[in-house]
Write a structure and sequence with these properties.
0% strand, mainly alpha, 97 residues, rod-shaped
């Protein structure tokens, strides 16, 4: 066997190791991204459900001003909670980057 072929094979083996390492890193990143998308989908669906329920409550209480005022207060409270959660998660993600 020629001496240059041994060196060439070693370089190829090192390249393979690097490629496999990069593939593992990319796989982990993909799994993390998939989990984040799944969580976002769940949160989005929860928000949609909440809004649908609020709309139904408004329709059910259209003739009751006191109930409508309570619903308005609940909406404001939920809006603030959602806003706080978004800000907290956005700040946490910005800190991680």
């Amino acid at each position: 066997m020629w001496p240059w072929s041994t060196r060439a094979l070693r370089r190829i083996e090192r390249s393979q190791v690097l490629i496999l390492t990069e593939m593992r890193i990319m796989q982990r990143a993909l799994e993390e991204l998939e989990a984040a998308v799944e969580q976002q989908t769940s949160v989005t669906q929860s928000a949609v459900t909440m809004l649908e329920q609020l709309a139904a409550q408004v329709r059910e209480n259209a003739d009751d001003p006191a109930a409508l005022r309570k619903l308005a207060a609940d909406i404001e409270k939920n809006t603030q909670r959602l806003s706080d959660a978004l800000v907290a998660n956005t700040d946490a993600e910005a800190d991680e980057a």
